[in-house]
Amino acid sequence: MADRAYRGLWVAIAGCLVAGLAACSWTATGVNAAGPPSAPPTAPAGDPPAAPVRVLQLNLCNSGIAACYTGRSVAEAAAVIRSEAPDLVTLNEVCQDDVQALERALARAVPGGAAVSAFQAARDRNTGEAYRCRNGQQFGNGIVSRWPSVPGSSVGSGIYPLQDSDDPEERAWVCMEVGATPAVAVCTTHLAYTDRQVAVGQCEYLFGTVVEGMRARGGVPLVLGGDLNLGSGDSPDLGSCLPSGSAFVGDGEAQLVVATPELVVDSSRTIDLRATDHPGLLVTLAPS
Questions:
Q1: 205 phi, psi to nearest 5 deg
Q2: In which domain, by residue range, is 184 found?
Q3: pLDDT at 114
Q4: Angstrom distance (rounded) from CA 115 to CA 80
Q5: What domain count does the chain have?
């Protein structure tokens, strides 16, 4: 696992590449570019958003491989997005085209009729390429935002240096900066479920290297929604990897929304979903 002394995310990512983690990258579009990435620009100074941020976390179990697959979860998620009109949607266990479909759903639900998205595939240990859904599309994590990307910013994404050697799916993370007033960074991830200590190590890397590096660059408020597989808020494993002062709330099982200290949890609720094995988690974050 990477040394916490890294203070620049590009330094951390360069370290990943030296270690042979070719999928750890920054891209203009966020879609699995390989090869040497360009250094991201400095983020704007960090102030809390002027208004609450509404985050919808979803695990859609849409690979077509897992037993929880129904083939209906994306349509159900689109209906929830149209009904709730969140600011940000964080997505786990989705195919690449699912993210685009949900981007369109959010665009229809919000004033101005526009949205942006990012996607990062997990990696297949057996092939070294992107992990695939049964339909052949890339499988991984996504973000959808009603706010546009911050001009000149890049999408950050990567494969964790620590993985469960018995699981062919190598876990990934993805982050982007979006133009709230002021800007806010948003990340998502789906940590290992097969080995709890691996999940803890991935969580420590995410917050100790990725998030810390982003904060060191510019300090924008950061929100993460994801399936961390580390239990509810009283889990000592979860507490060991979350930064001091973080605001967070969970669904009582595996999913959480976490925010840096510029934000606090104003309200949260779960949304029953019949087409996947996880509820939706809708969280409103207010300026601290």
A1: -65, -45
A2: 9-35+48-287
A3: 93
A4: 16
A5: 1
